[in-house]
Amino acid sequence: MEQLQIEDHFIRNDREAGIALLADQLAIKFAERASKHDIEGSFPFDNFTDLRESGYLKLTVPKKYGGDELSLYEMLLAQERIARGDGSTALAVGWHVALILSLRYTHRWSDQLFARFSEEVVNDGAIINHFASEMATGSPTRGGKPQTTAVKVDKGWNISGHKTFSTLSPIVEHFTVSAGIEGNDETGEFFVRKGPGVRVVETWNTLGMRATGSHDVILENVFVPDDEVISLSLTEKQQHTKDDGGGTLLHIPACYLGIAYAARKFAVDFARNYKPNSLPGPIAELPRIQQQIGEMEADLITARTLLYAVADRWDRDPAERVALKPDLGLAKYIATNHAIRIVDKAMRIVGASSLSRNLPLERMYRDVRAGLHNPPMDDVVLQNLAKRAIQE
């Protein structure tokens, strides 16, 4: 891992340089532990201790509650760098910081609940995520109604259901869930505190992103008081909230570009230093290796340029965030697919030793493929772009 990249043209001022440096310093530690957590499939509690103690968890919390109030652009700078050390940790903490950033704009929670939770983040290092995925519905972005149910009881609601892909489940003490309202076709959202009736089942055993702790969460008559109900219908939700176009989901492509950057750096360093006895110098002098390095650079620069340009537009023009949705999706589509190509080329440069578990490339190769299964999916992105083109 490197320290702060002064030559990174996407760092525009001293504040952003400080954010990048903080993330770089954390990533150095995370890189040293990444292989262990990947092999074990264990959750990186040690990394989250460092994130908590460094103040990283409060970066997107509003200043009025004691946070740093990072913009989307600034959050991506940090997230990309965390992923250079460990993709699993970056993706996991990304859901936390991105959700808080989204809530600042959308006002999906009541002011009282958001203030209360923000103060818990600042004072106690509280962590949050939204658990929506279920086996029966698939990705919640596809519009399936949750099978988890909410039943009205005195002074609150009882929630029962089975959530999958629940990233951060080993460490969160608070999370939100979507649930169908018993007796009608509406869907509600509820703030849940881990306690009686909440059970984490350790099912996460995957090819890549093995240390995100994305286990199943089972809820059995979990009580949620009325003042911690976020919404009771889609109609109510639309009336009281703003749509941010899904901009904060850009933490996902930032993660995969961070992995790609780390793979690219490993391969370039390898090419500079590997000198087989059949050559007069390092393989970096070979035209075919330079061709592959050039292709990696082209993919990385293209993807990062689009990602940060779209994030900057999202920050500067809140009124146009919904209209920006196809471009936000395109940034994820380009970043994810280019990141996969970059890691693949890095492995071709390094050769057969890239398959060794003693090197980080094989883990990066597995981790980066997970981006294809994070929202928005490729087919949805392309459909949105097609619809905009047809309408124009």
Automatic annotation (TrEMBL):
UniProt xrefs under Gene3D superfamilies: Acyl-CoA dehydrogenase/oxidase, N-terminal domain, Butyryl-CoA Dehydrogenase, subunit A, domain 2, Butyryl-CoA Dehydrogenase, subunit A, domain 3
Domain Acyl-CoA oxidase/dehydrogenase middle: 132-222
Pfam families reported for this sequence: Acyl-CoA_dh_2, Acyl-CoA_dh_M, Acyl-CoA_dh_N
InterPro entries tied to this protein: Acyl-CoA_DH_C (IPR013107), Acyl-CoA_Oxase/DH_mid-dom (IPR006091), Acyl-CoA_Oxase/DH_mid-dom_sf (IPR046373), AcylCo_DH-like_C (IPR036250), AcylCoA_DH/ox_N (IPR013786), AcylCoA_DH/ox_N_sf (IPR037069), AcylCoA_DH/oxidase_NM_dom_sf (IPR009100)
GO molecular function: acyl-CoA dehydrogenase activity; flavin adenine dinucleotide binding
Keyword field contains GTP-binding: no
The protein, known as: Acyl-CoA dehydrogenase
Native source organism of the sequence: Paenibacillus crassostreae
